[in-house]
Amino acid sequence: MAFDDNGTRSAGACHTSIYVVLVVSFGTVLHPELKAFYRRGHGDMKNTVSVIDAALATLFLAALRLCSRCASDSPRPIPFWQKLRWAAPPGIFVFLVITLSTWANFLSYKAFAMLGPCELIFVWIFARFLPEERQIPLCRDLPAVILTALGSVLFSIAEVTGAGPPGSTSTSTSAWAIVASLLCRACQALMTVSLRSCCVNVGRVGVLEITLLKLLVTSLLCLPYALLTEGLEPWSTLADKEFWTDSTSAFLLLGSIFITTGFQWATVGTNAGLRSPLVAVLLGTLQPLTAVALVLAFSNSPFCQALGLKRRDSPLEIAGICCLILGLLVGGLCSLNSLKETRPLEVTSELRDQTLEFLDHRRAAAGISAGREN
To answer: CA 67: distance to chain centroid?
Structure first.
């Protein structure tokens, strides 16, 4: 029996590790992939693409939900509209994250990716409003927050001043990209806090249904926003055979759909197989760290032109990037150290219990929601 139990745990850990790798991979490559699509002359349909990605990911998760319905439904099911009301706040924040990340990525992929660690600052601020967070010493995460804030300021100054002369279009674009990136990270942090509250209040709803309802709300908000900002012209373009004759554009569009759907599926798999808060800490650290590393790697590659990357190598920018990376690492170490003060998560076969245990840590949803879904 002990051998069987150990074998089951090992298999579960292996599956969770695969899901974690997929979450980090999909979440890291999505935005440069979309940026390449925008730079091929399709920036005027960026919000429409967000609708397509979110809607198809929702349909995919709905199919998974139908397949697992018999096994996951509770004896006393919660009314659909009640669950939808609980899932609405995080769904609204996901919509804001998608909208702002699309805007920021369109303006500057570099600024958007480099300012990813700023989410740590906003999570630290917003989480203080939760009653249980007030019991945590204020200074525990302060070194990581200060380093990240300093790095953000240094990088932003270097990005704006290095874009061109004051008042130029390039300078204005860089400034707006930074503003959009910071707003996006703030919304991601609010989504983290609201998603945690949603899961704790629902209690009997599994991670698959939480993600599905969240994306449903997001899709319903993305559609009118895309129609309001871009009209029907993008849909006409997508319906035209000429668009699909450009194999690169077609490949990038289909790739964004695949990546978004895969990201959401891997997110559900990660949450469902979670056995330790260590996974949440690793995701919260690795996701933005790999995004920063990818920008640095692309800056010295043939892809720099396709992604609109410009290497500046100013001392101010280098110092800012170093502080951002150091802030991430210090934040991860602080979280790992805090795990010693909390009890280990109990192994449970109930999906909802794993969800509640997982989301009982304030950074649990932060690493998962760093991608688009947003």
So the answer is: 26
In sign, the C-alpha dihedral spanning 46, 47, 48, 49 is: positive
pTM exceeds 0.70, yes or no: yes
Distance set, CA 295 to CA 84, 104, 122, 331, 373 (Å): 37, 15, 23, 21, 20
| Confidence at 337, pLDDT banded by 50, 70, 90 | confident
DSSP 128: T
Under DSSP, is residue 355 helix (H, G, I), strand (E, B) or coil? helix
Q: Which domain holds residue 187?
A: 21-368
* The total number of structural domains that make up the chain: 1
The DSSP secondary-structure symbol of 205 reads -
Q: Give kind and range of the element (H or E) at residue 283.
A: helix 277-299
CB atoms within 10 A of CB 259: 23
pLDDT one-digit tens code per residue, 235-290: 999 999 899 999 999 999 999 999 998 888 887 777 665 555 566 666 777 888 88
Q: Identify whether 13 is part of a domain.
A: no
Is 241 within the bounds of a domain? yes
Rounded to the nearest 10°, the torsion over CA 55, 58, 59, 61 is: 160
Within a domain: 318: yes
Residue 374 within a domain: no
CB contact at 8 A, 349 and 106: no
